Amino acid sequence: MNGIACVVAALLASGCSVSTDDRPVTADYIAAAILAPGCGRPACHASGANAKNYTFDTVAAAKTAMKRLVVAGKPDGSQLLQVMGEATRTKGGIMPPDGPLPDADIELIRTWITDGAAGL
Amino acid sequence: MRYLLAALVAVAAIAGAAHAYPQFQIGMDPTCTGCHLSPAGGGLLNENGLGVASTLGQFGGAPEAAHGALVGPDWLTVGGDARFAAGVVEQHKLNPAAFPMQLEVAANAKLPAGFAVYATVGGARGDGNRPITFLLLREHYVQWQADEGSNYGLFLRAGRFMPVYGLRLAEHDEYTRRYGQTPLYGETYGVAAEYIEPTWEVHATGFVHDPLQDPIERGNGGALDGEVRLGQLQLGLQGRYAKSADEARTAGGATVKWKASPGLLFAAESSVIHQTFAAGGARNQIASELFTSIFFNEHWFVDVGLGQFDEDLKAPKVDLEGLDVNLHWFASSHLELLFTNRVQTIDLTKGGRSSGWSLIQVHYRL
User: Fold this and answer.
1) What ipTM score was computed for the predicted complex, to two decimals?
2) What is the pTM assigned to this prediction?
3) I need a surface site. Which of B70, B95, B215, B258 has the fewest CB within 10 A?
């Protein structure tokens, strides 16, 4: 029932503009809300495809992958951001390859890494 | 080489499986069962569906499996789909792309007393460390139909199939599918009770995620879909709930389909999804699609689609907007050529990142 109420509230709020990003800056939230839907897709980094030996379709799998791709405190040295970011973009190898992640999502990941990448 | 790899990964993400063309509903037959064996549409065609396929094909041809060479006994229907695509994928620069989309065979065996068994076997992009993952048993279910041989009445299904929700567009990269409740390879194990009449239908499904093959839907839950047809207008409402170890999703949506004239169909779908995460946090999302289909004649039609997806209504600048233009040509009763194009951008009007693709698809129906 609570879920249905939230859906109705969301419908009513859908026309509202937003200006601040107050999403949780945690490993679990980033894994579940950004990396799982953005990277853990069929034929990509879902378990069944496991492209490049990286899987992101569950929180546990995504966090395992993040450990290999993140250098705590060093966003520019973290491969996770490199493959999503401008440096890679100019070379044409940006991930996800069929449509970029929003800058706001990348900034959330950057903030989490800068703050020490807690939770891995 | 890096560009090529990126392009291959990109196109693999776009690759998918053939389904019905809901664009034909209302104009040709009021329900999916008018052309398909499945009460939800998609997959193998029934006798009327084969007739429609023959009509659609500009250069005709026997519509039966393998051009009539694989016609078996009355109780057995076989078929399949092969799809290939080539073109360019754009993200900052154009990358060439060519890739297989689908290779799948299907069979339906009628059993006594209204029962039938339906199964598909195909290939998928698998994990090289586990060769079994290249084999995909996408759909397999037992079906019982109260009024055997009819397009209407009560259908019961048990097995692996996609819980019915929304417009069920063939284009699985439309936002209402990709970010909605029917993602590519989103089939689950479940039981469904479905009742279909010319003027209305309802589908209720309870499901659990696939414990055997790597699932895309990791949740267990239920889906309810209802549609009412008022002449050339169809209205639908949907609801769905799924809960996995990581998250829970409650979705509600509405669909509209209007055959404005013999050559013009409008279809729209919008869903709101409330998602809560086991580790904390929640968000509300909206996925919407507006589709206009223009039928030049029985062999050619074009879709112009507008899509919008907001991954978090409370977060700024995370909305995604897309424009699709898809041109379909049914060359023969078995061969379709599809020119599909998309441009999409994040945070429209604010200069967000853009991307897209332009692909020729060849679809051969066995």
Assistant:
1) 0.86
2) 0.90
3) B70
